[in-house]
Write the structure tokens for this entry.
Amino acid sequence: MSFILGVDTGGTYTDAVILEDEERVISFSKSLTTHSDLSLGIGSAIQKAIGQKNIEPEKISLVSLSTTLATNALVEGQGDRVALVMIGFKESDLEKHSIFDALKGDPFLVLSGGHNYAGLEKSPLDKNDLENWISEVKGASAYAVCSQFAVRNPEHELEAAKIIRKLTDKPVSLSHQLSAKLNGPKRALTAVLNARLIALIDLLIIKAEHVIKDLGIQAPLMVVRGDGALISAAQAREKPIETILSGPAASIVGARWLTDESEAIVSDIGGTTTDIAVLTGGKPAIDPRGASVGPYRTMVEAVAMYTFGLGGDSEVNLKQEGLGGNIFLGPKRVIPVSLAASTEPGLIHQALDSQLKSETPNDFDGRFIRRIKLSTWPVLSVRDDKVYKRIGEQFSPMSEVIKSRLDLQSVTKLVAIGVVQISAVTPSDASHVLGLLNAWDKEAATKAIDLFARRRGGSGELLADSASKMAQVIVRQLTEQTSAFVLEMAFSEEKIDFGNMPGALAQHRLTQIGLNGHRDLIKIDVGINKKIIGLGASAPTYYPAVGEKLNCDVVLPKYTSVANAIGAVVGKIVMREAGVISSPSEGKYIVHFDGEPVNFNNESEALMALEEKLSEKSIKKAKEAGAENVTINVDREVKTANIDNRIVFVEAIVSVEASGRPRISKS
């Protein structure tokens, strides 16, 4: 008998689940994610799961971790300050693929250097300029480096990394190590996001490793990658960008394991995001365009997942203009007032009571702010620091902190860099008011939603005349937005090419009429033609209404609230390696893989040599990650052209996948 432990660290909850002999769930638990010290939430969840069945920690033979922290950070625009080095590009290239948006004002340098398509040096790397710039960069937590055609020859990226590491003690993200595909600006974006996430994921893994060691668990720690596969903790720390969509990917693996459904839509609602994907033939599809999270399209291999900023803890916002209701939810996550009041009841209730007595509604009514406990004081501008000093470690009304529009801008920045938290009205609060949820302080939720209901929409009328009616509006809005997101995903994935407008089609008047089964001279029916597997702790609360809206069946499996944690530990270790063979002239073949280009005079020899190298490296990485009984799958894509009635070799892409289950010791 052996036990395996899956842990999922989300924006609101950390879940733990224990499986016996890899076959059945025997215990599970949930604890609040403690952002100030992640080890507390992880430790609490694991201890509860172990304690339910009095399991001896040393009998746990595998621990695997999935997380939405990286996904949430990118969706909410959080992460540490980074610096970008672009080699061989023009500054105008930074306007492509949202690189400037991703930098958020962080420093960058455009250097001479880079290579051409064949991997030959285009111009020398300007080392002096790089060294001088590094000496001027302040406050960067990590560096990202992208060189032109680095996937053909990474020499300049490796040289730049060597210089950065010599002059700083900061980690360096190299674009060619994150993707073997062309498109330099997109690789640069991926490297920037990877650098921004290093500290966050590093801290999470360190905390998790300390917890399992302190609890007496001797098993190795694995981490779920964005494609649902498992990697070692060391590999995850080296490439944290690969953990974006880790939690959602684990949920798909978990959904398949829990339901045995092979054709379905999986929709996982968490505290911060809703993640939607299609299960086809029992497997999630890998997005050929790269993982898309929030506004960014990366080059990370991940499940074809659609991530939207909508969850149980999404902020309820007042819509200032336009049609279609007076409120919208998200994309920012906040602490539900009911949760804040359960931890600091006296302070929250006193403020809410005072605001309810006021005859003049305030935009900051029912909104609170507190500082996140940090080991060091953050580096801030003078204005931001002044506002930060007004904020205590306990929640206080936002009206006491924000005195001007500039103060509000400072608070927005402080939230973005993750040093303060906001508490405000959320769908979770609405669910407490309606009796759909009973986890935290219902009375505080009622007061906060009552305050929100007193605000006026675009028509000038009050939003609602009671807290219960306002709560109903909020829950209906969650149903509407969830349904719209599922439809948007469906239009995007449909075999018919609808063009680049899935969101508009989901909201189109004809679509909405069809959802209601219009019957007159014209008969219009619209719906989802697959089952929806609803995952997440709040899925049973919200998803039956989504199924009714979309005219489809909804499956709510047992253990739906911990599907991510289950998926985290039942997956396989999968390592993929890819390389390219180019042909600068007829009869000449250049293999591009992991270093200097190598010349061949024969196509088959070049293909065999590349396949051998890729197989060797992928198998080695799989075994290093802890896989056993490793098998490989090879895919060759040879591109040719017909010139003067002759078939001429143009390019070949070879991909090798090595996979196996993690080694599990039997006690």
Notes: The chain is about 35% helix and 25% strand. The radius of gyration is 26 Å. The longest helix spans residues 184-214. The mean pLDDT is 89.
